[in-house]
Write a structure and sequence with these properties.
Layout lengths: L1 H5 L8 H8 L3 H25 L5 H10 L11 H17 L2 H16 L8 H21 L5 H25 L24 H17 L4 H4 L7 H37 L6 H45 L17 H15 L4 H28 L16 H28 L2 H32 L1
Helix pairs in contact: 2-11, 3-9, 3-11, 3-14, 4-5, 4-14, 5-12, 5-14, 5-16, 6-7, 6-12, 6-13, 6-14, 7-12, 7-13, 8-11, 8-12, 9-14, 9-15, 12-13, 14-15, 14-16
Length: about 450
């Protein structure tokens, strides 16, 4: 429940982008994407309870694909698959810092239009301030229990819900704005038989980055007291919350602003909504609360991605430099790397472009994890393992279909969409970052083996 309350904030950078393509039908896009989350997260819930000691989805993939007693191979291919899955997953979440820093910059420009002349320098300054604050918080190891998590989640949720529901109460919401497309919900000229279908599937690949992000409810499955009953409860509650909030967000924005209004605020559509409903004074309060909510998402992405790099280093999949911690046991080197990495991403100067590149990593990570689930259901090696929470045996075919859907359909459609909108900039960024892991991993394995042999000698 706590996880689900914070997840809908992730839709903010994509509201205008999806509506610009699909108009009112963008509401259907988000509903379908959350429903997709039910399909894949159910598989993840089972797999993580079968391998309770694994580190998330990448850890499960590493256990599934690694060969038993494989001492002949120079490199453990199974370990690489799991490590690459972890790297893809890391690249999916790390850019949250850059994406929402750029989004905050857009909202601030909405407050003070004169700051538009500052260009990318405003975003870089914001990024430097934000990552400095994150480094300070992370180095001190400020964490909280479930009560703190609930408070932070509610603070994230409250401003969003207020801004979304208020227009329906004040009369600013008009249902005709949703159905005013040339073909009902869709824009004039939309043709499902042409490249429009590829565009739609590319948008689905981007939407899942946020709308399916409640897979954490499944990843934490082994930690529940009664996984057999608690995993489906967690999946159902988180999924329903996300389904309602994602649908509400897109319905409210499109119904209140209409497509012309959204086109004037593609990155920050909630800004004119707050202005319309609350006036100048109320908008300031609402936007400050919304920016605070985005800062909390940034903190989650920053700390989580730093821990991922640390874990990968401890598992021998990244250089030992990333495993260094301070006196409080916090991965300072990993935090510095995440900070510098995101400051570079900010120079892309488009939160949606960064999100599009990041979605390449998420799509690959999910596809690999689903392939691991399929193998865990079909391999003789794993049939004897206890399954505290288990989907029906036929669900393995659903997972296999999702692997084909993710890697064979969504991934190339996402590449096409990125090339169409960003002249391959997003694709180039994604490919460079994802493929860079291959030589890094190989060099790390060579170094560790050499160091191990020297120690033995």
């Amino acid at each position: 429940m706590l996880i689900a309350l914070g997840v809908p904030i992730l839709i903010l950078p994509s509201i205008g982008y999806t509506a610009g393509y699909l108009w009112g039908f963008s509401i259907v896009l988000w509903i379908l994407s959350v429903l997709q989350g039910f399909i894949q997260n159910s598989a993840f819930g089972e797999m993580t309870t079968v391998f309770p000691d694994a580190t998330g989805l990448p850890g499960c993939a590493q256990k599934v694909f690694s060969k038993e007693n494989d001492t002949d191979s120079k490199y453990d291919r199974g370990k690489f698959i799991g490590a690459f899955c972890a790297w893809c997953y890391w690249f999916a979440w790390t850019p949250v810092v850059a994406i929402f820093t750029l989004t905050i910059g857009a909202y601030i420009r909405g407050f003070v239009p004169d700051l538009a002349e500052a260009g990318i320098w405003l975003d870089l300054l914001l990024g430097l301030i934000i990552v400095s604050g994150m480094l300070l918080v992370g180095a001190r190891g400020l964490t909280g229990g479930s009560a703190t998590a609930l408070i932070l989640a509610l603070i994230s949720l409250v401003p969003l819900v207020i801004i979304l529901i208020a227009p329906m109460i004040t009369g600013h919401f008009e249902f005709s704005n949703i159905t005013s497309g040339g073909s009902g919900l869709l824009p004039t000229g939309w043709d499902w038989k042409s490249g429009d279908l590829v565009i739609f599937l590319g948008l689905m690949a981007m939407a899942q980055w946020s709308a399916c992000a409640w897979e954490t409810a499944a990843v934490y499955g082994p930690e529940y007291k009664e996984p057999k009953s608690d995993v489906p409860k967690a999946l159902f509650s988180c999924g329903i919350i996300c389904l309602m909030l994602y649908a509400l967000t897109q319905i409210s924005v499109v119904g209140t602003l209409g497509i012309p209004g959204i086109e004037g605020a593609l990155v920050d559509p909630l800004n004119p909504m707050a202005q319309l409903v609350f006036g100048d004074a109320g908008r300031v309060v609402a936007m400050i609360m919304l920016i605070c909510a985005m800062l909390m998402i940034i903190q989650t992405g920053f700390l989580g991605s730093s821990r991922t790099l640390h874990s990968m280093s401890m598992e021998g999949n990244l250089p030992k430099w990333f495993s260094k911690t301070n006196a409080r046991g916090n991965p300072v080197n990993a935090m510095v790397f995440v900070s510098c990495f995101n400051l570079i991403l900010i120079t892309v100067n488009s939160p949606v472009a960064v999100l599009a590149a990041s979605s390449l990593g998420y799509t690959l990570a999910v596809g690999i994890a689903l392939a691991a689930y399929y193998k865990s259901k079909t391999s003789e090696r794993f049939k004897h393992l206890e399954r505290p929470f288990a989907m029906p045996n036929w669900y393995r075919f659903v997972a296999l279909g999702m692997v084909i859907y993710e890697i064979g359909i969504l991934l190339p459609c996402l590449v096409y969409l990125n090339i169409t909108d960003y002249d391959a900039v997003s694709v180039i960024i994604g490919v460079i970052i994802l493929t860079a892991f291959v030589p890094i991993w190989l060099l790390t394995q060579d170094y560790l083996k050499k160091h191990e042999s020297e120690t033995t000698s």
